[in-house]
Amino acid sequence: MMSQVATSYIKENRQEYINELIEFLRIPSISSISDHKGDVRDAANWTVEALKTAGMQKAEIMETPGHPVVYGEWTSADNDHTVLIYGHYDVQPVDPVELWDSPPFEPIVHEEKLFARGASDDKGQTFMHVKAVQALLATKGSLPFNVKFLIEGEEEIGSPSLDEFVQSNEQLLSADVLLISDTPMLGKGRPAVCKGLRGMCSLQIDVKGAKGDLHSGLYGGAVQNSVHALVQLLDTLRDEDGRIQVKGFYDDVIEPTEEERASYAQLGDFESELKEELHLNELFGEKGYTAREHTWVRPTLEINGIYGGFQGEGVKTVIPSEAHAKITCRLVPGQDPDVIIQQIEEHLQSHTPPGVTLTTTRYDQGKPFLAPTDHPAFKTATDAYEAVYGTPAVFTRMGGSIPVVETFDQVLNIPILLMGFGLPSENFHAPNEHFHLENFDKGMETLIYFWETLQFEK
Amino acid sequence: MMSQVATSYIKENRQEYINELIEFLRIPSISSISDHKGDVRDAANWTVEALKTAGMQKAEIMETPGHPVVYGEWTSADNDHTVLIYGHYDVQPVDPVELWDSPPFEPIVHEEKLFARGASDDKGQTFMHVKAVQALLATKGSLPFNVKFLIEGEEEIGSPSLDEFVQSNEQLLSADVLLISDTPMLGKGRPAVCKGLRGMCSLQIDVKGAKGDLHSGLYGGAVQNSVHALVQLLDTLRDEDGRIQVKGFYDDVIEPTEEERASYAQLGDFESELKEELHLNELFGEKGYTAREHTWVRPTLEINGIYGGFQGEGVKTVIPSEAHAKITCRLVPGQDPDVIIQQIEEHLQSHTPPGVTLTTTRYDQGKPFLAPTDHPAFKTATDAYEAVYGTPAVFTRMGGSIPVVETFDQVLNIPILLMGFGLPSENFHAPNEHFHLENFDKGMETLIYFWETLQFEK
Hints:
- Chains A, B: It comes from Alkalicoccobacillus porphyridii.
- Chains A, B: Keywords: Hydrolase, Metal-binding, Protease.
- Chains A, B: This is Dipeptidase.
- Two copies of one chain form a homodimer.
- Chain A is an alpha+beta fold.
- Chain A contains 14 helices and 18 strands.
- The first copy, chain A, has helices at residues 5-12, 14-25, 37-54, 123-140, 162-168, 216-219, 226-235, 258-265, 270-278, 291-296, 337-351, 376-389, 403-412, 437-453; strands at residues 58-62, 69-74, 82-88, 108-110, 113-115, 146-152, 177-180, 192-197, 199-208, 214-215, 300-309, 318-319, 322-331, 357-366, 369-370, 394-398, 416-419, 434-436.
- In chain A, the strands form four sheets. In chain A, strands 1, 2, 3, 6, 7, 8, 15, 16 and 17 form a nine-stranded mixed sheet that branches. In chain A, strands 11-13-9-14 form a four-stranded antiparallel sheet, covered by helices on one side.
- In chain A, helix 2 packs antiparallel against helix 4 (123-140) and helix 5 runs parallel beside helix 13 (403-412).
- Strand 11 (300-309) of chain A pairs antiparallel with strand 11 of chain B.
């Protein structure tokens, strides 16, 4: 059972916390835009101060080749157990800024929602952890376990410095459990712990024919057209139902259990939700799986972009010499990105039409992640949600990838709890990002409950 | 037999003619660039003066909604027969200008080739007709038939004003035969009369899925990807050998006779020539036809451009909402562009994959052309070539389209002789365009021979 003291403290200081968060959100810490480099550092410094205010015994900037990492810790617990908390203080760009109803870095509260870039992803959620810990320390004088904060400034650009940072600071970051709040709830009032993420691999495909673009009158019919060739090649990757035709692609997939599939089936009508949200009359996907399963437990291969030949207004009677495509796969547990990308390259090589040459270039990849939900901390987390939200938290997966989670898993080898408090409708990465203050309040309560009920086996 | 008088006149005045042509070529009459509008008019005025110098009784600018047409005539022949000559005084743009070895509008003669934009296409060839007529008039005091010149300034932008001009001036342009020198010879020393041109039709294809680009992690697997859908759709248009799969596409094609095919087979090894020119290891085309037949007598459907989704550096994990392609067909005698474009639209509609909507937009189209080579003027033309070049002229076709030829055919209903003097290697529309002076000299001789031997039946 949760004591009411820390929770009361949170409630008393609510307006002040919101004001502080607004201050945090005013800093335009866009990690992808070099003009904002100073702002990113300002946000790091602000985070250091917030950790000190919360009662951390140590809080400092740690340099990386890119934007700095903020590290903080309180290590005076009466035991050796440690909770590590990961978050990020950088935000996405704001373009197209004209689609925002209020300026992205001038936070406002409207109908109990806080509107600003980063409100939900991830300044708001990171700040909740800081304040939950602060409430516990302020009201009890100590925490039940040690705490470490790792708050980075490059999450929105793919965490390029963090792999190396985690590997070099394995000792510093050692802990028993890792908490991350950067995934969505299932919906309003529907808490979820995300237990799986998809991995990724990606490839650029370049096809080249004649030495240059050709006049379609003078040469048309006698030479290969690179765009036709690319179209023919790409069309071999997928069948008409969306099943990937690359040999071996599904071989290592770990199928979800019937229990897991049954639990997802009870989550509601995702198909209708999707169609409405995306303005679609029909969905499309591999036969034998639901839309939720398509996005959570099945691997994909998507063409992300294609280009070649004339793209201007009207027509130009040209036979394009070159054609290009970009593809990415989302991978599920069991699949190894190195193996999959190799299979795809072999498929492309063996299906290249005559008259063109093929080049492929690998880009980012990351392994899929599946959490060990039999660890007791998972039960603690779902119980905490249920205590506060009044409804059981469900285990979900997410179709996206958070490559750093896989790094934490590999290097730290501890249970990772993805306890999100954002809603899918909160426009992460889009105009009018916002955060429901209901989840700001309940989220802090949930975290306090989690801290107070967490137990480690002897 | 040809008299030597006019030919000697040509030879005596050769250097002066070249100097005049250089003056013509100095005018940057690029019809597609509005900044050159004044230059285009300067070239029209220059042409009027050249026609007056040649002895035309009338030579004037005639306005159109676009660049002006130059009209000239001499109508004092002792009979009612008239030769109409069509050419154009406008030129293509010069980009990329840095690839020119000498400035495009500062003509120079190098190794008996005249380098300048328009040298071959079509100022040089148009000028030859003017000078051939001048030589006849200057040395004989009259021409065997009346002559009319129609020299336009919009050929390189698709002759947008000429259809209307020809239709409105049917009486003014009435003639017994039309001469055009704007097609290539077969090669050096290999004269050709082009008897067929391919027609054209063109279509923009737009595919749209969800309301916007989607995150490939959150949605990937459950919704149609517009680029995949477009790829799948476009791949239905052609089989692996390049044969078009649109129902009815080949139904109305008038196959060339065995004699015609045999004559093309004797023209030499076009396959090797093409591979070398285009830096290709292999050609590609419909089975059962040679490369020359692919480009001259077979219809095509080419994707001229494709675009959709992310085209920048690296990868972006997006499911594109829209995808676009542009296609054009080259059509051969028998095929009607209206019918073909309709068949293609129906094919696309019936093959559109689920989860996307299709829109098509028609662009330019033009009918194919096949000359009535049994008209005696064709024999006169090939004899004229043979007399000067010492080798028989062959009938060829051209894979490209000159839509105005079809208009002349429809409106004037007279034989059209495409007697070209350019070489395929002379870089029309490309950097370092040039004109072999050998063909400037022999071309004028050929035209004089043609004028002197042409006969019309009673």
